[in-house]
Amino acid sequence: MSPLTPYLESISPAESLSVSDSQADINFSDAQAQWQNPANIFSVLMTVGGDIIQAALAQLVSSAGPFTPVAFSFGWVSYSVSSVLAAIGSHRFAPMPDCSCLLINMISGDRRPINSWILSRLVHDYEHPNIEGRKCERGLTIAFFKSIGKGTKSSSGKSKRTGVLDRDWRYYSGIFGILLQLGVSVIPVVLRRNWVVLIITCGGTILAQLQGALPQWKKELWNARTIENDEKRVFCLTKGNGSTDVIVVRCSVGDLILSNLTGARETYSRMTVPATFTLTLAWLVLLFTAQGLKEDIWFLIAVGGIGMIQNLLVSGARCKPAALGFHLEEDDIPEKFQNFELQAGMKPAHDVVEKNIVHSDKVFRALKKAEEIEKKVGIILLDIFFPEV
Q: Which residues cross the membrane (predicted)?
């Protein structure tokens, strides 16, 4: 006989039911209390999603001035710790490239893999143009652009500095998100005179701005020399053999030398390590302050949720070259190159020359027409799209 048998027999069914009911009430009360005031969840959320913060910063740190429209959200503590490791070790804040692509210098024929996040993003976000009102998924499409940096004016007479992005919906979403967060954090002040949520929100917003204002970011993303002495350079960007798109960029005086960006050169500043370390300590202080909050935690979670939505939208969004900091204008093809010649014995293909676009269902024919328009483009790209020829 088990030693517990006499004890179990001594407990009446009513007492057993009462014990189980009281335990269920305790468990339900604990769950209800957690949902009413989730004391620890915000601290946990603050340590996840650092990679989202990194991508959002990379998208928007090239804004003019020190303001970076990236909202305070979950993940900043995690990101701040990883930024210290990056400052000490790799000296790189930017994420790894989003896609595998190449840059070819049309003057020298030099072909380089792109390790720069900002340059790879230009290729990644490029939208395949509509040819005669429809998408062409076969053959090859070559688009010609000219950079309108310091030394070149656009058709509207304006020039813009490479590395300073144009403001688009991503920029204004950051401003809207920050204002909305401040509005939510004011509610506990009005209802219960609880200032802690507002203090944490303001503190997180200020720290986020300081993190984005570090000079290391812009130096790293735009570490390249400028073209001098009336020299003109032509660069091609493509994902390589099998891709349906090639971007041809004509650069002149005052523009950045795009081939300098491909290697994502390491940049180092004496202030980067102490600055990131100090910011990490400040984020930890903010985390401990949030941990001590016992009331109105849902308002703080709402603030973080608003920021996370803004960060997610910005980090994954496709955008125009100007919104990345590359100010390109369509370089229209001269009228004398508008027609394809069909050689004897060749079957007709879908060949189009439209504005700044050359397209053919036959890759070789597109390269041949591109060679007529810009010398060396077709010949050098021939080695990429026909490597065994």
A: 169-189, 195-214, 271-291, 297-314
